[in-house]
Design a protein that fits this description.
This protein is of the alpha+beta class. About 30% of the residues lie in helices and about 20% in strands. The strands form two sheets. Strands 1, 3, 8, 9, 10, 12, 13 and 15 form an eight-stranded antiparallel sheet that branches. The longest helix is centred in the middle third of the chain and has 50 residues. The chain is elongated, with a radius of gyration of 35 Å.
Length: about 400
């Protein structure tokens, strides 16, 4: 057992800090036990949804697990469904609830000023709705009780188990409520609540509030199991991603070493230098070099290089040529190289421009041309940067 707990702690530690362990906890309320505080209700005046997972044990007649009071009763939700109220008006749906006592189930109550409709769902199913008065909104500055009605009567104690009580500043749709219920009470372990940004009162914050009476906080067993399974899945996924990344790095290293040897041999046999800085342009930088790129380098100057003979390669000339050239892919930036820029273009330059990449450009296919790779190629061919 100790070994299992140790493994569980290690696995749980690997999960992101944002996925708080408190999401695994439930609260068990004894009779005459509750949590009371005064939340900021200002963002809830015109729309609200209250959702929770509860386990009703049938302790009292009116088992109140949510009660908001502000100069009068503003909102109540009772576990047995007898008083589902807003603004002092109630729905009585106890006969519609068929969930056996002592069973976890999902409860949600929604309302908005625009719809003027208060809806009550159990396990994602709409059990009832009522229309509210025109112009009525929630009062602020009130007191929220979790686990008890406002007052002292033990006949209104929840005295059951509760988890994941959250209050949203929007009226959740019926499909959103159903999705939440159908996903199961442990769904927040492996996924992010789609309405996380709308949460105003969060379960993990309620757990930190002062408790009155005997209230026990316990990890929900099946959710702990789900958490461990998710941690294992993430660990396995990370290990596989690392293995793939290392294999790709090794393959790239092998290819670069091979390319380096070939470059050195070509350099010594052909007495040729390459203008690697052409790859620092948007056309190639951080792109994976393709067969089309190779063909572009080797053939884009055919039929036009000879026409440049006698022209001085200036900034103005290159800008104008790139603008009017019908071949939008032709890499005019190659002529910013110190071998051409501000020089009178000659026949030797034309011959060099049309043949420089023969025998080498195809060896770059499949390599992502980052700045680091280009610097390495410059170093291998003993050529300093000569970019724009």
């Amino acid at each position: 057992m100790l070994l299992f707990l140790s493994i569980a702690v290690i696995l749980l530690a690997s999960v992101e800090a944002a996925d708080d362990l408190s999401k695994l906890k439930s609260l068990t309320f004894s009779p005459n036990s509750f949590i009371q505080f005064s939340p900021d209700w200002s963002s809830l005046t015109h729309a609200i949804s209250v959702c929770a997972w509860i386990k009703d044990v049938g302790f009292s007649t009116y088992r109140t697990f949510f009660y908001y009071h502000a100069s009068g009763t503003e909102m109540t939700i009772l576990a047995e469904g007898s008083h589902i109220g807003i603004f002092g008006s109630y729905m009585h749906k106890q006969s519609s609830i068929t969930v056996p006592k002592g069973t976890w189930h999902h409860v949600c109550a929604t309302w908005s000023y625009n719809s003027r409709t208060h809806r009550y769902y159990v396990n994602g199913v709409l059990l009832g709705s009522q229309t509210t008065a025109s112009g009525r909104t929630f009062r602020t500055g009130g007191s929220l009780l979790v686990g008890k009605w406002y007052g002292t009567s033990s006949n209104h104690d929840f005295a059951g188990e509760m988890a994941y009580l959250n209050v949203y500043r929007k009226e959740l749709s019926s499909s959103e409520v159903a999705s939440m219920a159908n996903a199961g009470m442990c769904s927040n372990i492996a996924a992010v609540d789609q309405n996380e940004d709308y949460k105003v009162i969060k379960w993990e914050d309620i757990l930190k509030k002062t408790r009155t009476g005997s209230i026990a906080a316990n990890y929900v067993g099946k959710c702990m199991d789900a958490r461990i399974e998710e941690a294992e899945r993430k660990q396995n996924s990370t290990a596989e991603e690392l293995r793939v990344a290392l294999a790709e790095k090794e393959e790239l290293s092998t290819r670069l070493n091979s390319t380096q040897i070939e470059l050195t041999e070509l350099l010594s046999s052909l007495n040729r230098t390459w203008d690697w800085d052409v790859f620092l342009t948007d056309q190639f930088l951080n792109e994976t070099f393709t067969t089309e790129h190779s063909l572009l380098l080797r053939s884009s100057w055919d039929g036009i290089a000879d026409k440049l003979v006698g022209i001085r390669i200036t900034e103005e000339f290159l800008t104008l040529s790139a603008h009017i050239d019908k071949d939008e892919d032709r890499p005019w930036t190659m002529l910013y190289s110190e071998n051409y820029f501000n020089e009178i273009f000659t026949k030797d330059m034309a011959a060099r421009l049309t043949s420089i990449w023969d025998g080498i450009s195809e060896k770059l296919v499949g390599i992502t041309l980052t700045k680091e790779i280009i610097e390495l190629l410059n170093h291998v061919t003993d050529k300093t940067n000569c970019g724009k």
